[in-house]
Amino acid sequence: MSALLVMIPISVLLAGFFVACFILSSKNNQFEDLEGPSVRILSDGEEVIKKKNLDKEE
Amino acid sequence: MKNSLKTSEQKICDHCFLPIPPGVSIENQGRRFCCQACQLVYGFLQTNGLENYYSFKNNLSDFAAQQPKYLENFHWQEQSYVDDPEWQKDYLQINGQHRTIKFYVEGMHCMACLWLLEKLPQLDEKILEARVNFFNKSLTVTINKDAKFLEVLKLVSQMGYLLHPVKNEFELSAKRKKEERKQLYRVAVAGACAGNIMLFAISLYAGADAEWGRILEWLSLVFFLPVVFYSATTLFKNAWYTLKARRFSVDLAASVALILGSAMSVYDLLQGIGEALYFDSLSMFVFLFLSAKYILLRIQSKAWQMNSLDAQGQGALQIEKFIENDAQTILSRVESLKRGDLICLRKGSVLPVDATVLEGKSYFNFAIISGESLPVEVQEGQLIKSGARNIENDLLLRVEETYQDSYMNKLLSQVENSWLKESNVIGLTERIAFVLLNLLLLIAASVFVYFSYVGLSQEAFQRSLAILIVACPCALGIGTPLTLSFALQSLSRRGVVLKSSDSLLKIANLKNVFFDKTGTLTQGNLELVRWKGEQSEELLNIVYSLEQRSQHPIALSFVRYVKSRINPRALYLEEYRETEGVGVQAKIDAQLWSLEKIIGNENLREHQSAVQLRKNNQSIATMYFEDQLKEDAHELVELFKNHEIQTFLLSGDRQSVATYYAAQLGLEHCYADLLPEEKAQIIQQSKNSLMIGDGLNDTVALNKADVGLAVNGSIGVNLRSADVVLLDNSLKKIEELFLLSKGSVSLIKRNILFSVFYNVLGVSLAALGYLNPLAAAIFMPLSSLTILFSIVHFFKVRTNQAKALEQRKVLINIQGVNS
To answer: Nearest chain B Cα to A2, which residue?
Structure first.
């Protein structure tokens, strides 16, 4: 039970730390766009190969 | 009436995956497209090695099909202001050698767009970075010093998107953003504290006692303090304002419960009783309540952004202005034009200021002003109001009014001003909440007084507190705003944008619907519906050659018709002549061919126009044109009639034509020959009205109706004058809107009913002593969770249904394409 004497203050500090992290990342606009990043990682980062088309239809 | 045969053989466009309308045939190298825009974008993607776009799109779970944006008469010169340093002051961000501008992307509809747009740096080395924010539909582009933003606009337009620059910190300015951010912090703190308090509460409920019990209780208080003194301060502020205004809001109810509950809990803790501690439920309540409010705030600010963003595009237009005593022109911003300036209005451009024609003759489209869609000839010396579009020839004009004072701008600002006025509607929710809270306070007070008087002060405290705790204002505080915000979100994903949730409530209570005719119920074009007489490839080529130079709606219709049947060849014309109101004629291979408008044909019906093809004055064939009804028009009218809503047709067209269309659709009332102001007058006389019209020339009418719905592609002007904007022309979306409104309102009513029932039951039990404060604290969050769950469930079901329907449609289309 005496372990709680240590655990509780630590958990309080931990909670404070996470709130601080949240506030910091919010300040950096990380919560502005929630759908974009989830899709961005799906792209393989393929290189765009410019093809010189023989018959251009422009 | 046109009847499109939908067999399983329906082809879909190889670019946007939407079904190709019958009669349209645009092909290239074996690929089929539904429109020129799709074909061009497809070609662009091919040339640049971006075909992965299609496989990417196919793998997405939320499949959204939309046609790319495409402007036929786009004048790049008009967009060159993006590189003007003067203009850039408000828009540009400089970072050493890098220059950045944020744009709103019109036409972005799915994740594949994000993928595509972020490939920009790979397409052009001068573009250093392109970052999409899908939530705002914005694109932030960074280029290096010697690049031009105009090139970026051009490149992006080839992908099928239109960019609208966003001012630095405009409207949704630093101040507003900061406010939003602060709200988020409040939610975060409340959540973190509530979570921790709950953890302690678990141990306490499990029976932690004596030393540790006391410690945990005090810890709960420590975590509770930030919730009350930081997170809940918005609640207290709002409650105070509404109290001063002698109005009522849910914040007031919440604040009272919070203050009394906290006071009681603190008192209990200090007394060492340890029975009436409500830090857990109160903090959880604050967290839930603030989260819902924050969600609602974000949704509303997103809609705001879309509105104000387009307002920017308007004023930055440029036009060619003549410098004194010089034949040369310079590009000058529209806002800086002064009376007496000479300007050159090019073919295809919109006149931005009121001006007089000095030299030249041309045809103008006055649709914005008079609703008349056919071109009107203008003469030298004639004053033309701003908003009219020059169709035929370049003209020299003298400016009569500045941009601020011109017709169009004045009209728009009038509408904007009336729109910004606060709507003081004390909704059903607030009325009930008001009654509830008063009743509650009365009961709690009387119970307290009674038991104190009788001498059972402990009992008095217990019971009155239980009463206050168990009574949950959260159904009203969270339930209604959450339902509305989900509904708005769901609708905007479907391409229906509402400016405020008020409209949703109004739509559910509709009594009268007013339809504009041209462009709303009908396609807005004259389509060739019947070709009576000879037809052959040769004749089609002849017709094409005669009509390709003209901008008349009938000519355009002819060209569309011919192109959908064959790949036309333009023949050599001699002595070409176009006569206004009559037709065109020319000699081809020494034969005199003419296309002339005819009237008084026995086959000709009121709403149609007829044109005859003549060879050497001998009639060869007669073609009939009509403005066709949109596909879903009939269904929509049926829907309203089934709900006992009166349907009206308001049209600027002739009585006979309007009556024909009204009869076709089964509309109950029909008014014709109306000017825009007259339409507004009719609407003003009715209650619970919805006006469905074209955002451009029905501005006044849309504004007068209780709910104004604009059916049109681009956002621009529409969001200023209408409460609801459809992003595509589909009338089916209106059906969805109506059904969703009705569904949401009944959901809200159900929740309110549940809440009333629960409160009555809970308060009675508490007053009678059957419910102690602890039990009350457990039931209270349970009730709000029930309501929350019902709302989430309702929308989840609808989203799943809609998705299933979409996927089935696409699958059918794909499977239906044989070869």
So the answer is: B212
